[in-house]
Amino acid sequence: MDQGTASSASNAAAPKAPPPAPAKRQSRVRAAELVGRGWLNTGGRRLDLESLRGKAVVLDFWTFCCINCLHVLDELRPLEEKYGDALVIIGVHSPKFEHERDPQALAAAVERYGVEHPVLDDPDLKTWDAYAARAWPTLVVLDPEGYVVSTMAGEGHVEALDAIIGEIVATHTARGTLDPEGSPYVAAPPAETTLRFPGKAIELPGGDVLVTDSARHRLVRLAPDLETVVQTIGTGERGSADGAEPRFNEPQGLALLPAEVAAEAGYDLVVADTVNHLLRGVRLADGAVTTVAGTGRQWRMDNGTTAALDVDLSSPWDLAWFEDRLVIAMAGIHQLWYFDPAARTAGVYAGTTVESLKDGALDQVWMAQPSGLAATADRLWLVDSETSALRYVENGRMHTAVGQGLFDFGHVDGPAAGALMQHPLGLAVLPDGRVAVADTYNGALRAYDPRSETVSTLAADLAEPSDVIVLGGKIIVVESAAHRLTAPDLGEAAVAGRHHRVTRKRTKVAPGALRLEVLFAPAAGQKLDYTFGSPIQVTVSADPPQLLAEGAGKGEELGRGLVLADGIGQGVLQVVAQAATCDAEAEHPACHLTRQDWGVPIEIAEDGVSALRLVLRA
């Protein structure tokens, strides 16, 4: 079974596995029963298909590390509101990382991300297997009689889901088989803590600390004792509003501007307003907030501008001042971007949107959900959460200090070449030059020493640490799942834990010539759009690059001949395909971009196939 993260059909986040077949109507296929360890958001009730009779149901197979899955959670919110109790969303949590199997960690994630529908805890992937899911996220639509109607992988399917659900509701209302009243969702009681799942923190001039109170959609200024609240910025309601009563949506990263830049810009610091896909400027004197970058739309393609307020962003997660501008960890599309407050411009700094781990020149590197940044005068450090990697930028190139790839993780200290982390989210450069890493899913504070190229553990038993700062010479950790900032007791230990690997089945392909076909047909009522030239673009690369003797690069045809090099037994083909369409019969036709990325693991074998077909679903 292939396992990976599927990108949207209209979004550039890359999958880690070949996608399932395109979404399609299936003829009266009975839905499989929902089997797992337990349920959340049901008041202790265990749900089954019989209890869901009369409802349109969407099964959302997700895992809480996955940025594509988090995007889908937000895409589903307006559908839940539109259809009310006639629609039941069931989150089927099917974990990738070992930490995600912990039921307490899952319960925390459900609260952290504001999941307001029932969630099935499926740690052994029983329901995942029963529905033949192959990638995170996968969506399965069931009708009120318990039959599978549609299956689709990735994000960006709101319009398709809306159309399918609308048809189900209309059809079953007419039949009298729809039950539009009553919901199995039971909200958990609200918690009473000063902070709720804080994300990132920075020290302010004077010694106070500003922290993003992410689950409460606000910023909180704490006194140096890390407990006394000095100021709050934001109403605490999910939303997007500037001014004196601002609203945020799960904010994460923070960065102070240099004094001279702040004076010119008119604000002191910038916030990565993650779920709003915006950067917000904050004036500390009065807490006034201004949107400084982003349109609020999630990035789907390059729109040809660098004007900061005209570019689309995708889940900005952290910020750092480096090379006279802010660098943005653009987690949603596996890139680093820049924002220049003086020029009011923004654009790509590093990365191709391919989700994997590859070093080199900044315009060629591959990342996987970069989530934390820290800068010195000559190096930009980052944690690449989905590859469990610590990396850095120096002299225009990216290097990996710790990390082995998308599917290798664990808690192993010692020489960096063999060291392992598990989904780290934050970091800080210590005064002695070491890099302290919030090793989130290991619940640990780790240290990487660039001089000896070794990794050690400074503290353990932390509750999902998400950031690190140095305050008055002390290391402070944002202990997100404990809802606090804390100064842990430090030691120097060498942990020799387990090496975990998520295994993917490889597609066997014959040596030599390999035909690649991307199958695409415009959606009903649409046609290919030639307004700006060819509507088709397919980009092919490989890991390792030597895997492809011929056929790498961009092209304008859906089909392409590849030649696999001799002497390389296996690797991953990376394919990015997009197609531009527009409405065929409309006075003012809307335009659409369908885009998907695939990471296809292959093994060279004499009995392998000579053609590989991928489906780009409109």
From TrEMBL:
Swiss-Prot/TrEMBL keywords: Repeat
Source organism superkingdom: Bacteria
Keyword Repeat in annotation: yes
Region (Disordered): 1-26
Domain Thioredoxin, first and last residues per copy: 15-170
Species this chain originates from: Glycomyces luteolus
Pfam families noted in UniProt: NHL, Thioredoxin_8
InterPro entries: 6-blade_b-propeller_TolB-like (IPR011042), NHL2_NHL_rpt_dom (IPR045302), NHL_repeat (IPR001258), Thioredoxin-like_fold (IPR012336), Thioredoxin-like_sf (IPR036249), Thioredoxin_domain (IPR013766)
Organism classification: Bacteria, Bacillati, Actinomycetota, Actinomycetes, Glycomycetales
Official protein name in the record: Redoxin domain-containing protein
Matching PROSITE patterns: THIOREDOXIN_2
Biased composition annotated in UniProt, kind: Low complexity: 1-15
